[in-house]
Amino acid sequence: MRSVAGIVLLALPLALFLAGCGERPQVVNYKQGSYQGKPDTPAYRGAPYNGDKTQWEHALEARAQNQNEYKRIR
Amino acid sequence: MARMKFLCDAERCIECNGCVTACKQEHDIPWGVNRRRVVTINDGVPGERSISVACMHCSDAPCMAVCPVDCFYKTEEGVVLHDKDLCIGCGYCFYACPFGAPQFPQTGAFGVRGKMDKCTFCAGGPEVDGSAEEFAKYGRNRLSEGKLPACAEMCSTKALLGGDADVLSDIYRQRVTMRAARGTAATPPWGWDAAYGRPDAVTGQPVPNAAPPSPAPTGGKS
User: Fold this and answer.
1) What's the rounded Cα separation, in Å, for the pair A38 and B60?
2) HEC states along B192-220?
């Protein structure tokens, strides 16, 4: 009798713990088709960056900071 | 780099349509097609809000899901683009889009629709970057030149922000922090003070409103 009670006492918290694993996604997941058109090249591939992604990202970030007056104008 | 996004600050947008004009001019957009437009709520009433709307380059784009010919693709930076050579102009994407971004040029009689046209985040399309074909079909490719979308860069009040989502979030977060001290719950900040108030020159802290706006007169004798 005591062993049954022990099993129940162990199983109950385990069941509560595992209940979280059964959570279902609550947002719509669209099924995207696979692109059938022409392949596109990354924006940094051609001139003037010639494939230098880091330089291209730095250029974009510098321009993005121009939109912040708190940094641009003192 | 995170994803390229637009963010429109409704406190700052003054409905000047500068972004619409910049977009039209930059890409030589034909008459009747508006890749970007400005929407105003409560127009003419104190407290009105305007917002500039175009393709929001959704992370999980419904237009991509419904396209029967699968002409949409997403770049490394999260910009949603499409191949006009493949588009059949069916209009499914227009019905799926919550922002009304897809546009269809009406070039012929009897309501004949052309191929879909939408905001490209100034990233062109699948043609060779900077080529005449790319410009003719999709407009200018500013992203490959290391520039951000023309609408955001032209915005006079910097209401419309464009670029890397993390950077935009930082800019907007700083603005909101500066706004937080202006006004109270009863008299929330609105207008110039809310949008453009500067921090104190010495302390760098937000400066509260000088005085709450006086209530509008009601009634009265003739």
Assistant:
1) 21
2) HHHHHCCECCCCCCECCCCCCCCCCCCCC
User: What's the ipTM?
Assistant: 0.82
Peptide bond into A48 cis (omega under 30): yes
CB pair distance less than 8 Å for B164 and A63: no
Q: In 3D, which of B118, B58, B130, B122 has the Cα closest to residue B87? A: B118
- CA distances (Å), origin B19, targets B13, B16, B76: 10, 8, 25
Chain B neighbors of A56, CB-CB under 8 A? 146
The beta-carbon neighbor of A56 closest among B61, B65, B146 is B146
* Diameter of chain B measured on Cα atoms: 71
pLDDT in tens, B127-174: 999 999 999 999 999 999 999 999 999 999 999 999 999 999 999 988
The CA distance from B204 to B130, in Å, is: 44
For the stretch B78-100, pLDDT in tens is: 999 999 999 999 999 999 999 99
What's the burial of B117, exposed, middle or buried (CB within 10 Å: 0-12/13-18/19+)?
buried
Please give the pLDDT value at position B112.
80
CB proximity B107 to A under 8 Å: no
pTM over 0.95: no
Contact A61 B130 (CB under 8 A): no
Task: Say whether pLDDT at B212 is over 50.
Answer: no
